[in-house]
Design a protein that fits this description.
Layout lengths: L19 E6 L30 E8 L17 H11 L3 E8 L4 H13 L4 E4 L6 H10 L4 E3 L12 E3 L4 H14 L5 E6 L11 E4 L5 H12 L3 E6 L1 H13 L6 E3 L6 H9 L9 E5 L11 H17 L13 H4 L5 H17 L4 H8 L28 E7 L15 E4 L5
Parallel strand pairs: 2-3, 2-4, 4-5, 5-6, 7-8, 7-9, 9-10
Antiparallel strand pairs: 1-3, 11-12, 12-13
Helix pairs in contact: 1-8, 1-10, 2-3, 6-7, 10-11
């Protein structure tokens, strides 16, 4: 992979069997917004200044690069919010260097990736992938006392002492999807299984396999015979998009609720590839950190607005690459999300609290950390006294819109924007 250390200097890439690469950002534009994709919702400071943070941070990032149904690959583009965090920390005087490894969605390579990152001297790891294959990586990180932030994983079952998830847990997701059903006054959902199986805690009146022949007529018949008043679609992002397209082709009019892979950019692309409409109503569950949050006149809106200002500025710099080093950041700027930005900020906060970049000391400082907007987070405050760090109150039913809010750079890529839904009636 191409090496790009902070400040635009070139360095030799580490040559490892796990395809190791280095990238980073440092700031040179102050709080300027280039106006390339609209104006921020609020005037906010772009620079992140964290008291006591070391002047240089080497952070490991594990991604799963690939297409289709490769486990964890749905988050690869979203993970580039990390680049925005690096840029903003650079403006505040902290140079951030990323050492990025592609685990190819494979258990053995994921474990090798953790070892490689440890050997490369990183202070902590952003596990920007998800699924069963990361269990081996988490076990290796625990063995090495390496702190891990996993913004996209839902399960806490395999987390070691020094690993945290910062997005919704599986239990929080169940409650959020239940809230999405309740928001539509839906009590009798039909499950459309696109490979994810049924969501525990939701009682279905019937189910349909999304790969069934003549899916359209089958699902129409099941909705009518079961009296279903809604559809829950469960699966990985690509299959989820194909299934939703099938529901649209079948003329389904009841509310459609998708499992959280729908929040990935891969889901939006799958809808487009399947010829589906992005403007049809869809619901899911997660944290309310989509672009629409920047339009609110409160501290949450200010924080997301500052993040989106950073997205626009970084995208305007043609030499800035994505985490893989193979594309410009502008190419992934529509997908780069708050979750990956905040994962980097949490590691920086922990390094500041520890006064060190030694992994063991960073992990010790992270345990019990409670970062919020004041500590640089663009999203919800976290409580790392729990290994599922996102509080229950920060997980909501979400609705989707395809409306261009003008808060990101102009792009031919279309991604859904998710926002906190309102209750019917």
């Amino acid at each position: 992979m191409r090496a790009r250390p902070p400040g635009g200097r070139r360095a030799a890439a580490l040559v490892l069997a796990v395809a190791l690469g280095v990238s980073g950002c440092s700031g040179d534009r102050g709080g300027q917004d280039d106006g390339s994709g609209g104006t921020p919702a609020h005037p906010t400071e772009l620079a992140l200044r964290i008291s006591g943070v070391p002047s240089h941070l080497n952070i490991g990032v594990i991604v799963s690069l690939g297409s289709g149904e490769l486990e964890g690959s749905q988050w690869a583009d979203n993970a580039n919010g990390a680049e925005v965090a690096a840029y903003r920390l650079g403006l505040g005087g902290t140079e951030v260097e990323f050492t990025t490894v592609d685990d190819r969605g494979d258990s053995a390579e994921a474990a090798d990736a953790v070892q490689a990152l440890s050997d490369a001297g990183v202070m902590g790891i952003v596990m920007a992938t998800s699924g069963n294959h990361i269990d081996a990586a988490l076990a290796k990180a625990d063995e090495l006392d390496m702190p891990v932030i996993a913004p996209y994983e839902q399960s806490t079952d395999s987390l070691g002492a020094d690993a945290w998830i910062t997005g919704p847990s599986a239990g929080q997701t169940r409650r959020g999807l239940g809230d999405a059903l309740a928001s539509q006054s839906a009590t009798s959902p039909l499950l459309v299984d696109a490979g994810g199986g049924g969501v525990d805690g939701i009682a279905y009146v019937d189910s349909v396999d999304a790969s069934a022949e003549d899916f359209a007529s089958t699902v129409e018949g099941r909705i009518e015979s079961s009296g279903a008043d809604s559809v829950v679609v469960s699966g990985q992002a690509s299959r989820l998009g194909t299934a939703v397209a099938g529901l649209q082709n079948a003329g389904v009019t009841v509310p459609i609720i998708c499992t959280p892979d729908a929040l990935s950019s891969r889901f939006s692309q799958s809808l487009v590839d399947s010829g589906a409409s992005l403007s049809a109503p869809l619901l899911s569950a997660g944290a309310d950190t989509g672009d629409a949050a920047a339009l609110t006149s409160d501290a949450d809106g200010d924080a997301v607005s500052a993040y989106l200002s950073g997205v626009r500025v970084v995208a305007s710099q043609p030499d800035t690459k994505d985490l893989s080093g193979e594309r410009s950041f502008n190419e992934v700027s529509q997908a780069a999300d708050v979750a990956s930005h905040d994962a980097v900020v949490v590691l920086a906060d922990a390094a500041a609290a520890a006064g060190s970049t030694k992994p063991g000391k960073v992990a010790e400082a992270m345990n019990g950390l409670r970062p919020d907007h004041g500590a640089g987070l663009a999203g919800a405050a976290l409580d790392l006294g729990n290994h599922a760090g996102l509080p229950d109150a920060s997980v909501h039913a979400l609705s989707a819109t395809s409306q261009d809010l003008g808060l990101r750079p102009d792009s031919a890529t279309r991604n859904l924007v998710w926002f906190r839904t309102t209750t019917n009636g």
